[in-house]
Amino acid sequence: MSQQDIRIGERLVGAGHRPYLIAEMSGNHNQSLDRALEIVDAAARAGADAIKLQTYTAQTMTLDCRQPGFVIEDPNSLWAGRQLYELYDEAHTPWDWHAPIMARAASHGLHCFSSPFDETAVDFLETLGVPAYKIASFEMTDLPLIARVARTGKPMIISTGMASVAEIDDAVRCAREAGATQIVLLKCTSTYPATPENTNILTIPHMRQTFGCPVGLSDHTMGCGVSVAAVALGAVLVEKHFTLRRADGGVDSAFSMEPEEFALLRAESERAWQAVGEVRYGGTQAEEKSRAFRRSLYVAEDMKAGEVFTPRNLRAVRPGFGLPPKFLASLMGQRIARDAERGTPCTWDLLVPSDGAKVPSPER
C-alpha cells in the first residue's frame, strides 16, 4: 500500500490499481425500493465496485417555501420551475431503504456507502457500518460536516465542483485536522449534464500534486470518453450516475449511464489504466520478435569474395537481421570478404577494407 493509496473495505484505491468505479444511484430509484434493488443488481453485473446513495430528507436540505432562491428559475436547468423542497422530497432515498440496499450490494460483493448532507445523516450511516463517505460538491464548503465525517476515521471522497484552490485547501486541512488520513479528491463539473469542453481534466494531475491526495473524477458528461481520458491522466476513481433506462425518467436520468454503457466504462477504463505504464523508449520484451520486420541490409545477388557492393547486390529489405539501412550508402564500393549467396544478411564480418577505405564503425 503506497502513501497515496486508500482502502475501501478490502479494496485498495490508487495509481497501482484498476480504477475504482462508483455507480451513483441518487434519485434514479424513482421512489421504488424494488427498482433501487434492481439498480444494485444491474450495477454489479456491469462491473461497478460500489453503489452510492445520498442520505438526506427534504427537511434537512432546505425550507418548504417558494421565496426567491427556493425555486429553480434557470430556464436551461433540467429542473426549471421546480421547488427545491419538492425536488428533494422526490429524489431522496428513504432512510429505511438503506439497510436492504446495502444488504443487496453486499450479496454481490459491492461496497455501498453514501453522501451525508448533515450530521444526523452521518450518525445514521455510522449505525450501518458504511466503509467510506462521499462529500458532495455543494457540501464541500460545509466544514463542520467535513469534520464530523473525518472523525469517523473512514475514507473520505470529496467532490470539488466549483471549488477554488483555497476552498479545496480549507476542506482538506479541515479533514486532516479532524483525523482523516485517507482522502480522495474528485475533479467535478457541477452542471447536469456537463460538456467535455467544461470538464478540464488536465486539472487532475495538478490537483494530485497540489494537495498530496489521489484524485478521481465525478463525471456528469454523457458516455465514457471523458472518464477514460481522466484515467489516462491519473484518475484512480470514477463516479457516474447510474440508471436502468434513461427513458424511465427521474430526477437524474437524463445524464445517467445505462448498464451497457457502464460495462463499457469498466472495460475501457481498465484498458486506459493498463496502457499508461511508464516513460519508456525502445522495444519491450513483447515487441522483441517484431524486430524481424524492420528493414536491414542483405546481399541481393550471389557474390564472390572480393566483389564490390553496388545498389544491385546490396539492398535494404525485410527481415531485420542485417546491418541497419543507415549504413547502405557508406558500404557502396566496398568489397565483400567471402562468397555469399543471395539472401545473406550483411554483417560487419562480411566486409574487408578496399583501396584504403575504412569500414564504418559498428553501432554502439
TrEMBL record:
Matches recorded under Pfam families: NeuB, SAF
Domain AFP-like, chain residue ranges per copy: 296-354
E.C. numbers: 2.5.1.97
EC category: transferase
PROSITE patterns: AFP_LIKE
Domain of life of the source: Bacteria
Example of a GO MF term: N-acylneuraminate-9-phosphate synthase activity
GO biological process, one term: carbohydrate biosynthetic process
InterPro entries hit by this protein: AFP_Neu5c_C_sf, Aldolase_TIM, PseI-like, PseI/NeuA/B-like_N, Pseudaminic_synth_PseI, SAF, SAF_AFP_Neu5Ac, SAF_PseI/NeuA/NeuB
Entries under PANTHER family matching the protein: N-ACETYLNEURAMINATE SYNTHASE, PSEUDAMINIC ACID SYNTHASE
Entry protein name: Pseudaminic acid synthase
Species for this entry: Ideonella aquatica
